[in-house]
Design goal:
Helices cover 30% and strands 23% of the residues. It has helices at residues 22-32, 55-70, 154-167, 178-195, and strands spanning 75-77, 87-90, 99-109, 113-119, 127-133, 135-141, 147-153.
């Protein structure tokens, strides 16, 4: 999700910082090469629940956490790295531990909603306004299979909702006003043409 707290208004990905250390920039580029981009069908697929909580799952979570960190994101869903597992990782503060939610289900969301600009590692260069509940409660499992409940508000709630959307095949383009969606599609089309 947004670049690590450079701008709390952007959720998953922000514009690349002006001057990254060459080593950090290289690590970021290598990590982003593993993130699926808009147009990849896996981003529209619904992830399957995890049934086995083993070392392979914990390795997957660790790999996702590393990719999220190196790509300078604050959230990452398994579908974004091509795996149809209901797994997400996030970290709202740069120095906070990474949280992993396995089989997350939105149990409750508050009535208060707010619009905020969001970006996405799978939609580079796209930033659109998305309205989401400010407060949520999510039931999930940790990587060892223990039941957990997360009560989140503000940016943490937004990040979790954004990543759960990914697990359901929903993108920020599906939640933004039509005019912003059209502009985002233009940006994505130009990027595609430039890459070709």
């Amino acid at each position: 999700m947004a670049e690590e707290q450079h701008d709390a208004e952007v959720v998953e990905d922000a514009s690349e910082p002006e001057r990254l250390d060459p080593e950090v920039a290289a690590r970021r580029a290598a990590a982003l090469a593993h993130v699926r981009r808009y147009g990849d069908p896996v981003l529209r697929a619904k992830a399957r629940p995890i049934e086995v909580f083993d070392d392979a799952l914990r390795d997957e979570v660790a790999r996702m956490a590393t990719l999220m960190h190196d790509s300078m994101g604050i959230g990452l869903a398994a579908t974004q790295v091509g795996t149809l597992h209901r797994v997400l990782v996030y970290r709202v503060e740069h120095d906070s531990p990474v949280n992993a939610l396995i089989n997350p289900e939105l149990e409750w969301s508050g009535k208060e909603k707010e619009w905020m600009e969001e970006g996405c590692l799978s939609l580079p260069g796209v930033h659109v306004d998305v309205e989401r509940p400010v407060n949520v409660r999510v039931r999930a499992r940790d990587p060892r299979g223990e039941a957990i409940v997360v009560e989140a508000s503000g940016l943490e709630a937004r990040v979790i909702q954004h990543e759960i959307d990914h697990l359901d095949g929903v993108l920020i383009l599906d939640r933004t006003p039509r005019d912003q969606r059209k502009e985002a599609m233009r940006v994505l089309r130009e990027q595609s043409e430039a890459a070709a």
